[in-house]
Amino acid sequence: MWTVLQENTHKHRGLLSGAKFFQIGKLGQRINTQIFISIAPIDSSELQSELYDSPFQTNHMEMELLRTNLSRVRIPEPTNRIYKQECCISFDTPKSEGGLFVDMNTFLAFGKDYVGWNFEKNGNPVYLHIKQTKKPIPEDRPLKKPTLLAIGIDGGFDNQEPEYDESYSIVILPDYTTFPFPSVALPEKVRLAVDAILIAEGAERKEQIASWTADKKQISEHALTLKQIDNGVRIPPSGWKCAKCDKTENLWLNLTDGMILCGRKLWDGSGGNNHAIDHYNETHYPLAVKLGTITSDLEGADVFSYPEDESVTDPLLADHLAFFGIDFSSLQKTEMTTAEKELDQNTNFDWNRIQESGQEVEPIFGPGYTGLTNLGNSCYLAATMQVIFSTRSFCSRYYKNQSLKMAFDIAPADPTVDLNMQLTKLAYGLLSGKYSVPAVQNDDVATAASNTKQEGIRPRMFKAVIASSHPEFSTMRQQDALEFFLHFIDQVERINAGYPEADPARSFKFGIEERLQCPSGKVAYNKRNDYILSLNIPLEKATNRKELDEFQKLKAQKEAEGQEISSSNEIVRPRVPLSACLDSFSHPEEVQGFYSSALKARTTAIKTAGLTTFPDYLVLHMRKFVMEAGWVPKKLDVYIDVDDIIDISPMRSKGIQPGEELLPEDAPENEKESTQVLPNEDIVSQLASMGFNHLHCQKAAINTSNAGVEEAMNWLLSHMDDADIDAPIHKEAKNNDVDPSKVATLVSFGFEEEIARKALKASGGDIEKATDWIFNPSAASGPSDMDATSSSGPTADATLPDGAGKYRLIGLVSHMGTSTRCGHYVAHVYKEGKWVIFNDDKVGVSKDPPKEMAYLYFYERIES
């Protein structure tokens, strides 16, 4: 209709010979809408005749149609969530061919192929249509070096985002009657509603790519009241050295007493020797500044507050430096700040092996090969979801067996907050191939076919809904891919609780049985379910011991000469077979402080473990954080020699065997408390000496059955962000057969804690069964105490998938960086006979997948 009106306008330009034409701008956008106003007298009868025979008469009739639907138009309030950047059913945007239609009643957005579904569902007929057309980008547009860890803002990464012209119109369904906007002919309510929609910040904005930015440093609460000690210390302009060791880099000046000390030892062994933090622990002098970062621009100096545990701003830094005789105006920058190191790590991709940098990666497009655009530190999500949606279970549940229309029809009024809808949307986005096409640059379609980059999709709505129940994943900070995987699986299991046979999360679920034998010869069996098999890396099983010894000698020699290993090619890393890691899971280990109800005393028990069921998909997690001498945590720089085919059949648990005698189930009343595992004080004190919270250390010892400092450290690093990590230790929590996180889950449903614990104990730790037990305990099956089992045969859970123990490697999630909380994640997936690399929105054929360096391994069971 609008095209016709434009043609009609041109037709009548001769008639309205005295008209003036105006270009109307809207919200800073140039809108190609023309309004003409007659300023010359004309024959009204002639005009009426012309208009009667023209589409203007039709426009008048259609305007009445719009007026009759004004009751379905709402003017948004400031609190309303307005979607105008992405369809809530698909990944269509205003840039898509059909643009985006915003429901002017619910303020939800829909692509052209889906807006009709919304009309059928709720009857809302009036929509604001938004269409963006790309502007040409100058070929000589310069690239700027980033100075801020951010994307899409001044000083951040120049992501070369093109600019767009934006046009608007009002559309009435079902006939798609269209009116141009802006237009004075539109009813005032419509104009006010559109203005409010366009001015408002979109609900998607908080998840957009420009959100990747470092937190702004705050003024330290200690800076204004800092007391400095006049001890005669004067700091020279150069030649600094740690007062307690020979370190000459990464040095920090304490602003209270002028001590120069080295910084913290990092996970990879680099950095300092912790002398600066040790000095704070002894003196509680709060502020230090990193030497080498002080220049005439004091805002760039790296000031750290130990009590606040973060980089801060010191507005009195000039005075504090002058106290020790430092003339900052003459100093030169010689060290990177903490933020610059983080930025350098994200811009200098020296993790060439994992990203396959330097190799000519052949781009690949089509169904199943869609990239996920980084929303800002969201690579942990992208890498994990690429592998998950390469499994048959998730592909079937949310793509083959459920259409977008089906998911939308059963979704609540706001489908953006429905996980089922957003999972189906993500599945179609990744698997349909609709969005896996070469990116068009500068509107040059001819060059698109040779372009290695694709537009990809932005999983903003999925991230928002999956993170809504987890405060950490709601942030824009980097996260642990393992923690995200477990959180995601838990959420999927919940929404499919009423239909367990359709739950794709079950394909990852398996049973674990632990056997405990005390010196009396009697045994106890504990059972639990899990989704990942977490494996220690036994470095003593390295197959290249000779090369490692030679490398250590070379390294020691160079360090004695004041040199460093100059090339990564010189570094020799331990190579440990995956089979050795799997063996370590079942290998007997000692459990200190175990109370034997047969001996009526605490003793040392021997624990072994096995799997009661073999899942459809087996996820292996490699524990790469260990303790060095001096109890310094370190990330292992190790290679795992991985086989494409593995057989875990020997790991199957056999249950109680003939001739074995179970430990007495119940202890005397006065011994009830002592049957629970108590934290080993040696483990707790060693962890606490590293600066960890004492309560957290106790929980780590309890939850690892006092197996040792290294095991407790691994548990602590994996659970530091648990919602109940600071909750007091209850007597019941010491019993390992009840998972505290699952108790918290049931409590969040509104059940009392004591009832939640009983339900979990009666249902073997299964949340779904525990819920059923609470509502109908008499009908619940299974023993009330899962500590011991009297089964004389295999202990497989009939509700879990099970099969043969032979598996094929189908996916890797690799991590680059010194900690799971920083760096970058990349996925490699085996598809259609080839390995494919998924590096955010870059998808290509992998020539050399880094199997030996992965953080998570995904295996698929081979059906016999």
Automatic annotation (TrEMBL):
Transmembrane segments: none
Region Disordered, residue ranges: 778-799
Chain ranges of the USP domain: 370-862
Gene3D superfamilies, per the entry: Cysteine proteinases, DNA helicase RuvA subunit, C-terminal domain, Zinc/RING finger domain, C3HC4 (zinc finger)
Residue ranges occupied by any UBA domain in the UniProt entry: 678-719, 737-777
Molecular function terms, GO-annotated: cysteine-type deubiquitinase activity; zinc ion binding
Domain of life: Eukaryota
Segments forming domain UBP-type: 218-328
Reactions catalysed: Thiol-dependent hydrolysis of ester, thioester, amide, peptide and isopeptide bonds formed by the C-terminal Gly of ubiquitin (a 76-residue protein attached to proteins as an intracellular targeting signal)
Alphabetical UniProt keywords: Hydrolase, Metal-binding, Protease, Repeat, Thiol protease, Ubl conjugation pathway, Zinc, Zinc-finger
BP-aspect Gene Ontology terms: cell communication; protein deubiquitination; proteolysis; signaling
Active site annotation, chain numbering: C379, H824
Documented EC number(s): 3.4.19.12
Binding of Zn(2+), residues: C242, C245, C262, H275
Leading EC class: hydrolase
Xref: InterPro entries: Papain-like_cys_pep_sf, Peptidase_C19_UCH, Ub_carboxyl-term_hydrolase, UBA, UBA-like_sf, Ubiquitinyl_hydrolase, UBP13_Znf-UBP_var, USP
Pfam family, one: UCH
PANTHER family cross-referenced by the UniProt entry: UBIQUITIN CARBOXYL-TERMINAL HYDROLASE (PTHR21646), UBIQUITIN CARBOXYL-TERMINAL HYDROLASE 14 (PTHR21646:SF10)
Family to which this protein belongs: Belongs to the peptidase C19 family.
Free-text function comment from the UniProt entry: Recognizes and hydrolyzes the peptide bond at the C-terminal Gly of ubiquitin. Involved in the processing of poly-ubiquitin precursors as well as that of ubiquitinated proteins.
Name by which UniProt lists this protein: Ubiquitin carboxyl-terminal hydrolase
